[in-house]
Structures are given as C-alpha cells and as structure tokens.
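Predict the holo structure. Ligand: guanosine-5'-diphosphate.
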Amino acid sequence: MSFPNPAASVKLVLLGEAAVGKSSLVLRFVLNDFQENKEPTIGAAFLTQKCTIGERTIKYEIWDTAGQERFASLAPMYYRNAQAALVVYDITKPASFIKARHWVKELHEQASKDITIALVGNKYDLVENDNDDNEESLRKVSIEEGQGLADEEGLLFFETSAKTAHNVNDVFIGIGSKIPDTS
Ligand code: GDP
C-alpha cells in the first residue's frame, strides 16, 4: 500500500512596517477575504495554508508579526529558522520602502543562508487607475525602485493588492517554486 507524501511544511514569516498590509495579505491568501479597517493583529498570528505548485503541495506555516513591530525590534528567533520571508512595503509610503531595505539586510545577516525572500509592494489598488493627467499619483515608490532592490539583493518581486487580490497568490506560488524540494 502506498501513502501520499505529507505536504512539505515551509515556515514563512512576514516583515515590514506597521500598516503596510501584512495581515491583510495573509487574510487574502488563506481566507480570500479583506477587511477595510482592520484592527491591528494582537497576540498569536499563526495560520497554515496548503498551496499546490505543479505536482507539489506545500503547507505554508505563516507567522505574522502580531503587531510586535509597533513596539520593539523583532526578536531574530522569529525568523531564524524560516525558509521563506515576505518583506512588505506600501507603494504609497516611501518610509516603508526604506524600512523594507533594512529588513532585507537584517535577513541576509541573521536568517538562514538559503531563505527565499520575496519583496512585496502592497496597495497596488490605490494606484492602478493612475493616468497621465495632472492629478498627483498616490504612488511614491516606482516599480523600477522595487525591482532594482530585488535585483540587487536576489529577491523575488511583486506588486500586490490584498484588497483586490492582485498578484497575492502569485507571491506564494513564486516562493514555493524557489523552495528546494526535500521530500
Ligand atoms: P499590517 O500592520 O502590516 O499587518 O497591516 P494590516 O493588514 O493591518 O493593514 C493596515 C491597513 O491597510 C488596514 O486598514 C487594511 O485594510 C489596509 N490595507 C491592507 N492591504 C491593503 C491593500 O492592498 N489596499 C488598500 N487600499 N488597503 C489595504
């Protein structure tokens, strides 16, 4: 008798400035839901979600920061044994992009050498109707800046919207495709 292999578990952490949409991206990916005025996550924020990529199924164990980034620097134990990380910024908030740079640096210094990192510019819905007229765009971080950082640091790069679901599944599929198959 043969048993199917259990799905390989992948620990994934989210990093990024408060309010960029980390919990919202998880909510979209896991429950396909969005809340407009979401209360900050308090307490435990651990969810699992299976993701099938071709022949392979990965079980993501997703650790959200539970709002700790508001109060203190995150303990390295949070990401030390993670196989994957999403570093999230808000494309309408330049300071959040600067913070994302710091997180990438910290991960490269402190996390596992073979961690797969995706840089995620969230809230794409706020700029998707931008056009070339005189109105000032809400976009404050260009695609080129995001892609540039990703290229420099060897990261996957996506612009997403947790609100409309734009590119959200692609982030998790993209990460899964880069994780070495150890089964
Ligand atoms: P976190 O602190 O990084 O986990 O951010 P949250 O997920 O709590 O989101 C902060 C706020 O941004 C909430 O009011 C969300 O509804 C909103 N938000 C999150 N993602 C998006 C998005 O893609 N588009 C827009 N317009 N708002 C978003």
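The radius of gyration is 16 Å. The beta strands are 8-15, 46-53, 56-63, 84-90, 116-122, 156-159.
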